[in-house]
Give the backbone structure.
Amino acid sequence: MKLLTHNLLSSHVPGLRPGGGFPLRIEAAEVRVRPVPFNAAFVSRLVPRLRWEALREAAESLGRPSELPPEPLPDYEADEEFLRRLHHVLLEVEVLEGSLQCPDSGRRFPISRGVPNMLLSEDQ
Amino acid sequence: MKKLKLKELESCLQQVDTFESPKLLLEQYATRPHIAACMLYTIHNTFDDIENKTIADLGCGCGMLSIGSAMLGAGFCVGLDIDADALEIFHSNIEDFELTNVNMVQCDICSLSDTMSDTFDTVIMNPPFGTKHNKGIDMIFLKTALQMAKTAVYSLHKTSTRQHIQKKAAEWEVKMEVLAELRFDLPASYKFHKKKSVDIEVDFIRFSAKKVQN
């Protein structure tokens, strides 16, 4: 699971208050870093749509020093260094094993071989 | 971005591993490489809804549509499916094709709340048609897809349901365009069917996701 995927995922445990399912807390047992071809145009387009605080928290929770500023830099479109750092955090860092925890309900969803399993059990 | 010809795309998609033991109750079958290639080619060349876009593939199965999207220059693709075995095949396909911008999530589309609104540029899918004790599932997939997509949803639906879908699209205030009429041959579901497969007419439809967008 890449951090871009994590930034898009919400818990859908029934009965949560609005927004109570995001962001899922990452508990990582195995993390992999793998190079991915850099696409500046794509990363730049993503910036206004990312939930920035959640992304920073996620990066920090993976034990990585925070490579991201508190907010996207102004004129980020032209700032290749910033875009490369963002690209790295979003696409090159993957959680292979671990779990995602719903912030409101505490329900845990396992991540196995890089795939989060968001299936709710029968009683939910 | 490399310009891929339709025939090249189709050839590549023929290498995608498909279901070994498809689960009929989940209506599992791989979208045929020819159909997938034509769909994706149209989405890319006519509407520019693939290159550098974020794409969700609902009911991705072995990933035919996601893989094709990645080949046409999608920025990032996420495949969603309920079945771990299908995702296993998808996973190995991603490794075989050495794709680095594809992820997958195991979940039940029918129980996704609307908390994932506007999370992807485009949704591309071949949803279950609702022929296996799961009537109405095609509309659930469609509704969820329309919530998740910012720009457009591309989907396949039985031609026989077209009027019903048109009514729903009007209700949801989304624009609907039938891009092509296709013939599918689906694996037969019952042991007593004489033929090995069943021919059905299918619409390839584009839905504009939102009525107002900045």
Summary: The domain at 3-116 of chain A is CATH 2.20.25.10 (N-terminal domain of TfIIb). The mean pLDDT of chain A is 92. Residues 59 and 66 of chain A are 7 Å apart (CA to CA). The beta strands of chain A are 25-33, 93-101, 108-112, 115-116.
